[in-house]
Design goal:
Length: 239
């Protein structure tokens, strides 16, 4: 299968579903990580150009850990809009990956770029297979099954599926740690006690408690028409 995760910023996919992607990659599936914005405001002291380049390199390093293919959309951080150029770019990302399964941000997420990214991705999944919706890539032959990822604090998000990521937890952590610039940035904006790694670990432990494993990632299926899979089942996991 082809698997596509779409995150708003470099590091979002790692926090919410890198363990599941690592499991898919280890099982021989083709994994794509699409990042909507270039993260060009995530710094207390560098210029937008400098931090964007750093974050692009951090994202490449993270993808390399599991052999995922990176789709770098390069929109400005904090300014993601639900407009035609963005929808077209997301359609192209879906066409490039030709996914069986997609992971996207959900509507209860805290960050506007996350919510917009999730909405645009959800709205792009059908037009990606429509021939006369013309972008830079040709239409694809199937409509993927789509799941919402959890959000960082798990706010207003009750998973339907818990994926046991205990066996790949160190891989997930390694991928997140590739985003080295974000540790100082998170502390600068949210307080010195804030650690993106600790937040990820807390979330994975909490989902693991609910799902019956040491660490887990939680997902909910997007259930809008057309139905493209069994509700609340993650293809390839037999759950
Ligand atoms: Zn983010």
């Amino acid at each position: 299968m082809n698997i596509l995760a779409i995150g708003a910023h470099p590091d979002d996919i790692e926090v919410q579903c890198a363990g599941t992607l690592a499991l898919y990659a280890a099982a021989g599936h083709r994994v794509f990580m699409a990042v909507a914005t270039n993260g060009n405001v995530g710094t207390p002291d560098l210029t937008r150009e400098e931090i964007a380049e750093i974050r692009h390199n951090e994202q490449k390093a993270s993808c390399a850990v599991i052999g995922a293919e990176l789709i770098w959309m390069d929109f400005d951080d904090e300014w993601l809009m639900n407009d035609r150029p963005t929808r077209e770019r997301f359609i192209d990302a879906i066409r490039q990956a030709d996914p069986d399964v997609m992971f996207i941000h959900g509507p209860t997420d805290y960050h506007p770029d996350h919510r917009i990214s999730g909405q645009v991705a959800e709205d792009a999944r059908i037009p990606a297979s429509v021939r006369l919706v013309e972008t830079t890539l040709p239409h694809i032959g199937k409509i993927p099954q789509v799941f919402y990822m959890d959000n960082p604090a798990g706010v207003d998000f009750t998973p339907e599926v818990h994926v046991d990521i205990t066996s790949v937890f160190e891989t997930k952590k390694q991928m997140l740690l590739c985003h080295e610039s974000q540790d100082s940035w998170m502390r600068a904006i949210y307080g010195p006690e804030t650690s993106i790694t600790d937040m990820m670990i807390d979330n994975a432990r909490a989902r693991g408690l609910a799902g019956g494993s040491t660490y887990a990632e939680g997902f909910r299926e997007v259930k809008t028409y057309p139905r493209t899979g069994s509700y609340a089942q993650l293809p390839g996991f037999g759950v």
